[in-house]
Amino acid sequence: VKADQHSENAQRLQAAGNKVKKAADVLVKAAQSAAVFEEQEVEVNIQSSAVYAMAAELQAQEEILRRERELEQARKQLAKIRHAQTYSFKKMQEDGEQEG
To answer: Are 40 and 47 in contact (CB under 8 A)?
Structure first.
């Protein structure tokens, strides 16, 4: 069965085929462009990876120092609490001895 090339259905089919072809061309060009950018990005990352490593190391050291300061503050707070408890306990013992 042969279709009439001049029929409305054949013309719509031809138009749809043309749109698919154009869309495929656009997709191929976009993929090629993305591949070029990806290659450039890899080169930049390789060149600057040492800089990123140094920055990451500095950030890690900064985080360690911050946490060490927090730990020292927590230790001081604990010492104050223990001192206050000891003072309070001694005070209660003294008061108990005076009453007895």
So the answer is: no
| Contacts with 45 (C-beta within 8 Å, 6 or more apart), sequence order | 52
The amino acid at 18: N
Instruction: Please state whether the predicted TM-score (pTM) of the whole model is above 0.70.
Output: no
| Integer angstrom CA distances of residue 39 from 27, 32, 42, 51, 52 | 18, 11, 5, 19, 19
10 neighbors 3 (Cβ within 8 angstroms): yes
**What pLDDT digit, counting tens, does each position of 13-64 carry?**
888 888 888 888 888 888 777 666 566 665 666 666 777 778 888 989 999 9
